[in-house]
């Protein structure tokens, strides 16, 4: 009986010891799991419509991604470039979500419907769509009031033209592009009521040859200042080859056509990306439609070219200050359309809803809007 009791006590002691060992091992395992989770980086992806070397839109977007990586620790970013708008974008967005990316920035207007579709399938992923207007609980939109910078460049073009014909190489007939043409023309006409802004459409975002040819056609029609909405410096190079002036877009295009470029209307995406990712990390992000003004720093002007006079610089800087301080905005009436009909009465400021749905040209634009 005593022997049996000893054996029972021994077995009990061994059982307690084994439980203790297992418990210690489990604790070590949990600690290791916690360490691995802490070491795991937040995966963020970007989908681009063009190549990062386009010198324009995608290049500016990628500068924002690089800025984000430098400013926010514990993240890992990737990108896929030259993704066509449409079915291909839905496939790529799905692949990025499947690979564990928890934040995806879709950086072109034509990705909009694909973003909404894929967002419904991956509710734990946050989607941010650039320049669109459709949202979901886990999908927001973002853009900047580029029309403010466009207006300022219009002031410069109106002052610099001698032929009173200014060429505008336009991308697609969507409200974003129309709004930019109109803002630019408001600036031109403010300082030069005799000038016209002649528009040629390419229906491209990135086609260097087509965009350069469109600029050449405008130069042959008498334009002596060229601006654009596409992602390549082709129109600026066409202007330089003819000894004329140009105003770049997306990023500073002076290095591609230094004798032509007066300035460029530029994007600065980095601060927005940093603020958005930090909000998502903190759990404070909510889907919205961000449309940041020039005072947020998301849009602005590149440095002036050496050919720009002090008089023109002072004019532009004075108007810029009014915009930055919120004292005035571009689409303040009276504003007429091409037919001379008043669309915005004197003293009235156009609403965001109307600006975001622009489907008409202001007085001074020489061109039509394709259906």
TrEMBL record:
Keyword list, A-Z: Signal
Pfam families noted in UniProt: Bmp
The UniProt record lists the keyword Signal: yes
Sequence ranges assigned to domain ABC transporter substrate-binding protein PnrA-like in this UniProt record: 42-324
InterPro entries hit by this protein: ABC-Purine-Binding, PnrA-like
This protein's record includes keyword Cytoplasm: no
First and last residue of the signal peptide: 1-22
GO cellular component terms, A-Z: plasma membrane
UniProt-recorded name of the protein: BMP family ABC transporter substrate-binding protein
